[in-house]
Design a protein that fits this description.
- The N terminus and C terminus are likely disordered.
- This protein has 16 helices and no strands.
- The protein starts with 12 loop residues before the first helix and ends with a helix.
- 80% of the residues lie in helices and 0% in strands.
- The protein is globular.
- It has a single domain, classed as Up-down Bundle (Growth Hormone, Chain: A), CATH 1.20.1250.20.
- It is mostly helical and 406 residues long.
């Protein structure tokens, strides 16, 4: 299989499939924050127990990050891709029909594990498949993810308002995946690649700059999912919106992410990814201040929109920068470590915020996101100035790999 030339970017059938499946993953995950207030009321849950649903999902993603590369080596990427997506549908169905916290949390864990297999495979294959153009592919795929995420709070709030219940939002996602699987089931999934002219019996070491960007991904995930998971509760309890209105208004955040990633995709063609990353998190800080401190709902929602613009490009740009420093054929392993650290952040971040909210209120808990955002700007600046050294393989071999990949 030939990769595109250095001057073109080609979206083949696999690229479109990967974009769609990442959009599916994003939609299903993004329903969790908006439906949590309704689940809390139904099951009479505290903030801490409600937060365990996202924590369970995150633990599943952590395990997916540690196991996906092994599964890909043994069974192939195609198996991991389709089994991961299909199994996540099965466990979503279980989640919808049970009404005990232990069972809802347990099924959520397996959703995180199986959909995590899908996520890691998408990231790794897109990076390998598009080589030096990976920043474009990863950013575009995250535009699709953000666009579908816009629909999540709209679906939850709308279905609840019209009397069909918030669960219908997840049913729609399940049906959509089934239709997509029927349409694209015969698309070739690019296999794990090999290093040209180098033995690959042992893992090659990952560079220090990769681990630095992994720290950026960790804090970025804490920020993003803290805003998403507790956003509806914050808008209801602190800003003063009705529960259904607060869930629907989270659409503003996801819409801002679509716009931000669309702009970022264009800018990434002419501006260095590192500079864009620093600009993105600086914009997040600017937006979070009115979101948290605004005296009126309108100003708070404007801050939410600006914060969404800033958060939008954090993950795709950092993911592109990190994977760009990884020697092949370690992309599956590196993508797995990224999923691991992101899952760990999703596990710890919202759960810690939930505990703080139980003790000091949702306003104090949400304020911690602003503190982390400021720390993030400094971390990005430090990571951007580390040397771009890839141990264990020369730059010439990497270039040969990108040009002659089979």
């Amino acid at each position: 299989m030939q990769t595109e030339s250095s001057t073109t970017f080609v979206r083949d059938r696999f690229t479109w499939l990967a974009y769609f499946m990442l959009a599916f993953f994003s939609y299903m995950v993004s329903t969790r924050g908006p439906f949590i207030p309704f689940l809390r009321d139904e099951l009479n849950l505290s903030y801490s127990v409600a937060g365990m649903h996202l924590s369970a999902f995150a633990i599943g993603m952590v395990l997916a990050g540690l196991t996906t590369d092994r599964l890909a080596r043994r069974y192939g990427r195609k198996w991991v891709f389709w089994v991961g997506g299909g199994a996540s549908i099965v466990f979503t169905g279980i989640f919808l029909v049970v009404h005990q916290p232990v069972l809802t949390i347990g099924s959520t864990f397996f959703q995180g594990l199986t959909s995590g297999w899908l996520l890691v495979t998408i990231q790794a294959t897109l990076s390998d498949h598009h080589g030096e153009k990976r920043a474009i592919a990863i950013t575009e795929s995250n535009i699709a993810a953000s666009a579908s995420a816009v629909l999540a709070p709209l679906a939850v709030g709308t279905f609840e308002d019209i009397g069909m219940g918030w669960r219908m939002a997840l049913v729609v996602g399940m049906i959509t995946w089934g239709l997509a699987a029927l349409w694209w089931h015969n698309v070739e999934i690019p296999p794990t690649q090999q290093v040209v002219k180098k033995a690959t019996e042992h893992h090659l070491p990952l560079p220090s700059v990769f681990w630095a960007y992994l720290g950026v991904i960790f804090l970025g995930a804490v920020i993003e999912w803290g805003i998403i998971f507790w956003g509806a509760d914050f808008l209801e309890k602190n800003v003063g919106l009705r529960a259904t209105t607060a869930s629907t208004m989270m659409t503003i955040f996801f819409l801002a992410m679509v716009i931000g990633r669309t702009i970022g995709s264009r800018l990434s063609r002419s501006i260095d990814v590192k500079h864009l990353l620093l600009m993105a998190y600086g914009l997040l800080v600017i937006g979070f201040i009115p979101l948290w401190l605004a005296p009126t709902p309108a100003i708070s929602l404007i801050g939410l929109f600006i914060a969404g613009l800033g958060v939008a490009n954090g993950f795709p740009l950092t993911l592109s920068a990190a994977l760009g420093m990884v020697p092949p054929p370690e992309t599956d392993r590196a993508s797995g470590r990224i999923s691991f650290i992101a899952g760990l952040a999703i596990f710890l971040g919202p759960q810690v915020l939930g505990v703080v909210a139980d003790i000091s209120g949702i306003r104090t808990a949400y304020g911690l996101i602003g503190v982390i955002s400021i720390i993030m700007v400094g971390l990005v600046y430090w990571a951007n100035h580390l040397p771009e050294h890839i141990p264990g393989i020369t730059h010439e071999e990497v270039k040969t790999y990108d040009a002659d990949k089979l």
